[in-house]
Amino acid sequence: MNLIDAYVYEVTRRLPKKSRDDIAMELRFSIEDMLPDSYTEKEVKEALAKMDDPAVLAASYRDKPMYLIGPKVYDAYIETLKLIFPWVILICVILNIVASIGMFNGEESILTVIINTITDTIVNVIYAASQVFIWTTIVFVIVERVGLSKNDLPLTKRGTPWSPDDLKDVQIIPAKKIISTGEIIFSIFWITVWAIIYWNADHLLGIYSSSDGNGLQLVMPIFEQNVLLSYWPIVVTFIVLEVGLVLYKWVVGQWTKKVALVNGIIHILSTFAFLIISRNANLYNEAALPYIEKTIIINNVVLSNAMDVLWIIIAASIVISLIIEIVESYKKAKI
Hints:
Blueprint: H1 3-12, H2 17-33, H3 41-49, H4 54-61, H5 71-103, H6 110-146, H7 181-199, E1 206-210, E2 216-221, H8 225-229, H9 232-252, H10 257-278, H11 288-296, H12 300-334
Antiparallel strand pairs: 1-2
Helix pairs in contact: 1-2, 1-4, 5-6, 5-7, 7-9, 9-10, 10-12
């Protein structure tokens, strides 16, 4: 580990992207000016010890002053909010969706249920996020004012003042290679949504019609729920694999060749299983096609051909998206 690179990284990662390159160059010049031509690691540590703590130095570069939360706990405060907010939002969204599905009795129109669910979710997310922000801020203000240490310098994750030896633990990760917390949260949210839809497809996915001004009403489901649920061992297997993959990404925190390989294998297998299952003719409601023929007055052969073309377009789109995702993940892993 190059200690100079690690120190520059620790400072610039706390700064806006637009100013990182210039400040990084300035810092390197400043540090190298303090060193002889052929310097040792000990001399680098001695030079870095004369520099400010990376958090303090980064704070001095920021345009916006920090009056309420000072440099001592500012980084920990921001990191805590970044960690908590996505999970609060995810939990609120999932709880509201599950509650809406659980209370759905078929008497209200599906459009009304969707609008009420979205409205309730937004209100609950705003309320929960504001509570988290207020109480987290209060806790950090108290921590800073009361003080956890007699030292005025910012504390590291180990609760000790910073020293050049801490740079040995720094892992420099290019921004494009990082697997963000937001990506992890979105993946879990997406898996949850698909799982909910799978076990409730008979009253979520279907043909809807509006009559007498009562909004959209479910006329009939598209899928035969019994046939769809007969694939539950395969579906559960891939849900477990997807959740495991998300947790693996969370632990690693960046795209590596191993992560890209595991990601590619699981997604290829899940896509293959989806395409095989979707070709089962018994999966679809037999009454759906006659209803569509009668509603839009279309020839049976033409409708069947149109459905085949639609399936090919959907399948091709999924495969192309999969290929793009795999290529992009390998590009990130090679950075």
